[in-house]
Design goal:
Layout (H helix, E strand, L loop, with lengths): L14 E5 L5 E5 L1 H8 L15 H7 L9 H11 L5 H17 L10 H7 L2 H6 L2 H22 L14
Antiparallel strand pairs: 1-2
Helix pairs in contact: 3-4
């Protein structure tokens, strides 16, 4: 059976796994590997430009109470899709993809206003630093998985991994 060690230094920008039998090999998973796998841009600057309030005013303010959950977003898209312009349906789908697929959050989570403002301008949305944003939410959860297992080696642990799924 392989031994797995994890580097828990707070300033470390990735996770190092020591795997193997007699000959151990160090495998690393960090921001570069995350971006290679996901194809997202990674940059230290995560400040978002936003397009404004036209999407919120045009689509959301008349159809849903803000703030709203991911589940409410899904319901809005399913029940009222035909009322919206194609670009607004794309915006709703992008928000749903962000929360349900890329971040893997519970459906009761509220959609952040920054994301509503960002999706208003599809160019800003496409140029946004999603690699850094998603890595910063995924990395702490990856660290916790093996740390919990080490604390309770004989206990069968169940863990919900949030962040990029």
């Amino acid at each position: 059976m392989s031994q797995v060690d994890i580097n828990l230094e707070p300033e470390f920008d990735g996770i190092s796994y020591l795997v193997g039998g007699p000959v151990k090999e160090n495998l690393r998973f960090g921001p570069r590997e995350f971006c290679l796998i996901t194809g997202f841009i990674f940059d230290d600057n995560t400040k978002a430009k936003h397009g404004g309030f036209s999407f919120i005013n045009r689509v959301l303010s008349e159809n849903i109470v803000i703030p709203f959950s991911v589940d409410s977003l899904k319901t809005l898209l399913e029940e009222k899709e035909e009322l919206f312009e194609d670009e607004d349906v794309v915006r709703l789908c992008l928000l749903l993809l962000l929360y349900s697929f890329f971040m893997g959050v519970e459906t009761t989570k509220l959609v952040e206003q920054d994301h509503l403002l960002l999706v208003d301008n599809l160019q800003f949305w496409n140029e946004y630093n999603w690699g850094s944003y998603l890595w910063s939410r995924t990395y702490p959860n990856l660290l916790n998985v093996l740390a919990k297992k080490k604390l309770h080696p004989n206990k069968k642990l169940y863990y919900s991994l949030t962040g990029f799924v």
